[in-house]
Specification:
With 436 residues, this protein is α/β, with parallel strands linked by helices. The chain is built from 20 helices and 14 strands.
Length: 436
Amino acid sequence: MTLDSSDTIVSSAKLTNRDLYNSIGQPKTIVAPMVDQSELAWRILSRRYGADLCYTPMFHSRLFANDLKYRNNMWCKLDGDAKSDRPLVVQFCANDPEHLLNAAKLVENQCDAVDLNLGCPQGIAKKGNYGAFLMDDWPLVHKLIKNLHENLNCPVTAKIRVYDDWNKSLEYAKMVLDAGAQFITIHGRTRDMKGQATGLANWELLRFLRDNLPKDQVFFANGNILYPEDIERCSKAVECDAVMSAEGNLYNPGVFWTATDDIEKQFCRVDKMLREYFEIVKEVSSESLASRHAMKSHFFKLLHAFLNVHRELRPDIGKLSVHAPMDDWEKIVIKVEDIVNDIYKKDNISDIDIITTGDIESWGGRYKTVPYWRCQPYFRTVNGEKQNLRTLHVAATEKKQETKENEKKAEVIEKADTKRKAEEELEKGSNKKSLN
């Protein structure tokens, strides 16, 4: 590895699979690629709380390649910085191999790999024919990855979702790897599981895929990460190389903190987390427009539980433009700090500033009760009921039995075929003897 004049890392040779994984420090915790949400400032914050590897937000390859304004809004010279923003994977959505290659060429020397988004399930992806909606066009997926693999200086990776059919999911993953993807990240939910219908990722299916892909294949799992201990649960259940989190990380960067059982790292006070994040934004915003543009969204997510109690702050945040002076944003941070400081002046603070853990749920983990002034997971309300208060649908369970039955049928057919061939050989031997 060498450094060029702009302090970006340039690979002397394109690394593959396990060698690539080893070269970036064998990461175990990964910030997922998210639309406008995993930008530079957020990545810097997440790394401080235990993220080993970060992905950029999903970039639109055609716009990134052809629209200078779009590219400058999304990417700056600090992105992929050798000292503060590595290892880094840059993700693009695409449906045109040349647009994708042209976009990737613009960042190939400022990242460790380029990733193809094959997992976005949102309506905009359906309209634009990219993300998870390319699951209907395997030849195009193969062409997109292969073109990068053969023409890009850095490696290519891919992030996919699963089908209801386990065997189809396996064949899809094999095709993606055959095209040239060096890492594969598999989100254990189907394309239809989004928003109100999100449900649970299927770790059993992920383990099935892990077991049936090449043993040395670098495999990242995505889905169902609420708390730091879920990282280890997922790693053991799936036997994956690393665990990726999107929403869990957005609402609590401490979800990746597994080094110690430190409450101040795993469930940080919102006033301290907000201040730390805000100071990072101030430091990089003159270069990183994406970090400035994402700030309001991150404020709301970090404070989601806090704002359910202190609703008076909602309009104060909502009315601010992302272009408002930083002093105006700092006033919000100071208000949060003042409120939380008052909480910690209470005589019974040692009795109320505690985290309790519930019983084991059907999905294998435990819900926690976290004080509202600390960072914590977000639970959607579905039909008037919080997700953590109801039984959730698990991905790809309907087809599980069908898949197993098909496997049994195939096994019976194979045994019958073997028996038939053996009988034919015996019959041939008998005929030869009778002729002699």
